[in-house]
Design a protein that fits this description.
Elements lengths: L15 H10 L2 E7 L5 E7 L1 E3 L4 E6 L4 H8 L2 E11 L6 E15 L2 H13 L5 H11 L4 E16 L2
Antiparallel strand pairs: 1-2, 1-5, 3-4, 4-7, 5-6, 6-7
Helix pairs in contact: 3-4
C-alpha cells in the first residue's frame, strides 16, 4: 500500500500539470502542522512555487507556534484552492490541491532574500517597496521549503 491514499472520486482528479498550475497561480493556502499536544494546527500562508526545483517556499518570523511545530515534526500538508461561480447557478466550482511533504529550513541569507523577492513580486511590482522590505525585514526572516512527496488535486462542483 502506498504511503498516500488515492483519490476516491477519480473522475474529479486533477492532473499533476493542473495541480502545479494551481500552485503557481494561487498565492495563498493553509499550511497544516502537528501542533501543541498533537493537535493539528492550520495556518493561512502565502507561498512561492519554484518551478526550478518543484518546492514551495514560505517566509515567516523566526519564532512561534508554527516554527516550533516544524522543528519538532517536519511532515506537513499544504492546501490551496480556488473557487469560481458556476454561470447561471448558485454554487461554486472549485479546484483544490493538497501537497504532503517534508519541510527543510533555508539557512543561506542570499537564498532567503532571493526567494523573498520572488514571493513579493507575486503581490506587487513595486521594486522599491520590495527592496525596502527585504533590507528591513530580511535579517529577521525565517524561510522554509516544502519538498513535495505527494500532490493530489480535484475539481468539485459544490451542488
Amino acid at each position: 500500500m502506498s504511503e498516500f491514499r488515492d483519490l476516491v472520486r477519480k473522475k474529479q482528479e486533477l492532473s499533476q500539470e493542473e495541480c502545479v498550475s494551481l500552485l503557481k497561480s494561487e498565492k495563498r493556502g493553509v499550511l497544516s502542522v502537528l501542533g501543541d499536544n498533537d493537535y493539528p494546527y492550520g495556518v493561512p500562508h502565502n507561498h512561492f512555487y519554484n518551478e526550478e526545483d518543484g518546492k514551495l517556499y514560505f517566509h515567516s518570523g523566526m519564532f512561534g507556534h508554527k516554527i516550533e511545530a516544524l522543528k519538532a515534526h517536519d511532515k506537513v500538508s499544504y492546501t490551496v484552492y480556488a473557487g469560481e461561480p458556476t454561470e447561471g447557478e448558485w454554487y461554486l466550482t472549485f479546484r483544490s490541491v493538497i501537497v504532503f511533504g517534508i519541510v527543510e529550513f533555508i539557512e543561506d541569507r542570499d537564498t532567503i532574500y532571493d526567494i523573498s523577492r520572488k514571493l513579493s513580486y507575486q503581490f506587487t511590482q513595486d521594486s522599491d517597496y520590495i527592496e525596502k522590505e527585504v533590507r528591513n525585514s530580511g535579517p529577521r526572516t525565517a524561510m522554509f521549503a516544502l519538498i513535495p512527496e505527494h500532490i493530489s488535486g480535484k475539481l468539485v462542483r459544490e451542488r
